[in-house]
Amino acid sequence: MDYGHPLRFGASLTARDGALGPAAELAELSEELGYDLVTFSSGPEPADTWTLMSWTAARTGRVRLLAAHAAEMNPAVTARAAASLDLLAKGRAELVLAGRPSDGEALGEAIEIVRGMWAAADRSPLSYNGEHHKVAGAERGPAPAHTIPVWIDGADPALLRLAGRRADGWLAPPVTDAAGVGGLAMAQAAIDAAAAERGRDPREINRLARIAGRFTSDPGGFLTGPPGTWVADLLPLVTDHGFAMFVLAGDDPETLRRFALEVVPALRAAVADARRERGVTESAPGRSALVRSKRREGIDYDAVPASLSATAVEPGDAGYARVRSTYLRGGAPGLVLRPGTPAEVADAIRFASSQPVQLGIRSGGHGISGRSTNHGGIVIDVSRLHAIEVLDKDTRRVRIGPGARWSDVAEALAPHGWALSSGDYGGVGVGGLATAGGIGWLVRKHGLTLDHLCAVEMVLADGSLVRADEHENAELFWGVRGAGGNFGVVTSFEFEVDEVGDVGFAQFVFDATDMAGFLQRWGAAMEAAPRDLTSSIIMGRPRPGQPHVAQLMAVVDSDDGQTIIDRLQPIAAIAPLLDYSIQVLPYAAIMHVPPGTHDAQGEPVTRAALADHLTPELSAAAERLVGAGLTYFFQIRSVGGAASDVPPEATAYAGRSANFQLVAMGHSRRALDPAWDAMLPHFSGQYINFETDRRPERVREAYPGDTLRRLRALKRRYDPGNVFRDNFNIDPAEEDAVPATI
Amino acid sequence: MSDYGHDLLFGTFITPTNAAPHRVVALAQETEAAGLDLVTFQDHPYQAGFLDTWTLLSYVAARTERVHLSGNVVNLPLRPPAVLARAAASLDLLSGGRFELGIGAGGFWDAIEAMGGRRLSPGQAVDALSEAIDIVRGIWDADDKSRFRVDGAYYQVAGAKRGPAPAHDIGIWLGAYKPKMLRLTGAKADGWLPSLPYLDLSRLAEDNAIIDEAAQEAGREPAAVRRMLNVAGQFGTAGDRLLSGPPGVWAEQLAALTLEYGFSTYIVMADDPATIATFGAEVAPATRELVAKERAARATVPGTV
């Protein structure tokens, strides 16, 4: 019996005589020697191996950590401890549940509770009323970084049954001689029978053998002799008894070294030969029946490319809670692919384009118009492509991965005295913003984020990786700057960034009872302001009996106190000031947002637009909109300045005449749409990232006239099958009134 | 007025958020880099948003070299005392004597029960903590080769092997507010670790007196119990609230707390590097200086704890 699992080797280390340091050091040595995993047991002097494993997690970077929590611990706490270890160790934890022979039932309950706690995607509290363990409405979570395999340690029949029914792996008792090997065969059969009863494929269950031995010059018994003896003794364990994982006990560095260098390669070769002869194909244990049972219709999960399978997250995986939803949108995708290289992005696109389901592309997960989650579809999440590197100090050219967040970018550029104006919130990802616009805190001085773009590397719908800049694929480069989401997935951006020192950051609260007048005066003040001032205003629903207030945030691109005051004075004068603060801060401090995960529910309802001026008519209409309580978040950002220096035909972002960008968030599309539609005559264009209305007019607002014709031609050339469609979509099949000429 | 003469220690209280685990680790490293003495994490195992405090403490111990570590405070109802004792000793051994054991009797009983823990009344919880302290010390006493048996009202140990012995005398610190818990602190603990926001300042002298008296009844010096304090505040322009102002104001106020009420460890609730750096670089040295000056004037005999 050979389940065909790839061989894996580990070290089983003992905390001896209360000295834990040596065991921890051997764990580090094991990683250096190329072992795949480490596990600890306490020696005759009791010690806490969980502590030792958590320590080891911090001192290693690659080995898997087979960790046993103390059997006396509450299983719900054990679940959180294991998830925490997995999060800290970036997905390297595996949980061993051990017990006395009679504990089969208690361990079975513990597995249920542990997995229930990890299932954080389920928002209902966990209750479990077992004979041995109870949980009465505990909040689930955290989800571990990966689906933590649960191992059963022990050979009692009840434990073997449990392993077969519910576990991901079985730790066999130490194999000490050839005769003992025979006993293992019966245990394996018991596990397989229990698995079969539950409809599980026995190959789902890993089998690990603990071994110990000595290197001697002459053969002297089981695992005693030269490396050849070891190989001869271990080979039948693989080919006939179903073991593909071995952990070597003994705590002897020299034995660990010789085993790794002399036995492992020879055993691998012998196993490969034997498997070839017998026609056993090697494959890692796939996702368990439990995980597969949560799969969604329409996705051929078994066809997920091998390069993506291990990092992909599907609904039954423990990490699902962390990836299902985005900042403003609840979702339940059927598969989240997490490529870590451009080649893997290509694999992901090729796979996704063959599946008849929705496809979202996610960088930071803040997309409002760009649907970076969905229900039952595929998401390609590029957050692992987050590198930030300086290419040329003289020209301030930097290369940034699409999965970096603007907070990280600001922090990375700050030591150089540089910044790249992005959006107004640091938690936003680079990819979705830099392909659409980028109206940030320095926009009037330094322009849009995409105005700093010099080149991109991207994967197209057919999976090919191309570079685009002013010379190479120039038309594609034009389209990427404003409509990038329609043509592919950018895997790296090259920007030229600006020298930016500390900046003035102001927050004002105004009495905006005269809202239309307030908007007009702010609009006029901003249009008259020097470019080093950028500001935005936010208003919410009116509160009965209270004056209507507007919050204003402003950045002055100067660290000079007098300049900051000079710029802010005209703004402060537009309405009665209720509260204010002014600070001089590094740009990175304004953008600072700690990393975290998203867990929104529902679907955002927003409308957006660009406007050239806050005319009396527009201001009055905005007052009616806000006054009617149709929006709980109404924001206007100043644009213009350097963003208007670029001709509208220079990039696919066409709204160059706009001095203002508006967005309204509401609770009801039926209520918000008519009110906003009535305001359309006052607008000059569309900012695609904030607009959730899916009527085709919105696309024409963003890409007027020739811009849309050029984009349509590009779309037909680069994505004729409309693979990239769950965004501000340019439909390749639609006909334009006048075809483009390029 | 009671100054127990302890040397001053300064530390941080970092939120163990699991949304960004490595940021939490980095804040602990910032604590060490800032020259502070102690990194602590709260322990609420029923809180889904936090990392498991024990796993985190062990991980952070491996990523730091000098700073001491403690739970602030470890949740006894969900951490069986014998396991806790072995884990504490193990971490102390691995870290070269840098672990301290802050323990709490538990308070959020609905949440503890939801996790499958046992609900106790506040009075029972103090009695359980008292038993647990004896078990912890019994496990640590590895020189005693007899099997360890306890048949308590709350905890039983059935002939366990003792050990491991920790690398140093791990301090047991209690988060205590009510008289019964204060008496337990005086009788059995090495440190009193309340949080300033929950303390009634007008009762401080009385609280100290309860601890002192309980210590003396147990045949201990009052100075055997270090008085420690979790504090929160803001750096910036001076305000009305305690610890709201520039570092110099903090130092004056903390020095007063030492000289008037005997506190000698200050643990700042801080989740940003700037606060940690300022606390280490400015508040700690300035407070030490103020206290040293005043103690010299008073000729206080330094304590040994």
Could you explain the architecture of this structure?
The complex is a heterodimer of chains A (742) and B (305). In chain A, 33% of the residues lie in helices and 21% in strands. With 742 residues, chain A is an alpha/beta fold. Among the domains of chain A are: 8-278, TIM Barrel; 502-699, Vanillyl-alcohol Oxidase, Chain A, domain 3 (3-Layer(aba) Sandwich). In chain A, strand 1 (8-15), helix 1 (21-32) and strand 2 (37-42) form a beta-alpha-beta unit. In chain A, helix 4 (104-118) runs parallel beside helix 5 (157-166). The longest helix of chain A has 26 residues, at 253-278. Chain A starts with 7 loop residues before the first strand and ends in a 24-residue tail after the last helix. Chain B has a single domain (9-298), classed as Luciferase-like domain (TIM Barrel, Alpha-Beta Barrel). In chain B, the strands form 2 sheets. An 8-stranded parallel barrel of chain B has the order 1-2-3-5-8-9-10-11, surrounded by 6 helices. In chain B, helix 5 (122-140) runs parallel beside helix 6 (179-188). Chain B is globular. The chains are: A alpha/beta (742), B alpha/beta (305). The interface between A and B is large, with 52 and 48 residues.
Secondary-structure element pattern of chain B, one letter each: EHEHEEHEHHEEEHEHEHEH
How large, in whole angstroms, is the Cα Rg of chain A? Answer: 30 Å
Please state the structural category of chain A: alpha/beta
Supply the helix-strand structural class of chain B: alpha/beta
- By DSSP (H or I, 4+ residues per run), the number of helices of chain B equals 9
Low-confidence stretches of chain B: none
- Figure out the total of helices of chain A: 23
Strand content of chain A: 15-25%
Pfam families (chain A): Bac_luciferase (PF00296), BBE (PF08031), FAD_binding_4 (PF01565)
Protein name (chain A): FAD/FMN-containing dehydrogenase
InterPro entries (chain A): BBE, FAD-bd_PCMH, FAD-bd_PCMH-like_sf, FAD-bd_PCMH_sub1, FAD-bd_PCMH_sub2, FAD-linked_Oxidoreductase, Luciferase-like_dom, Luciferase-like_sf
Cofactor (chain A): FAD
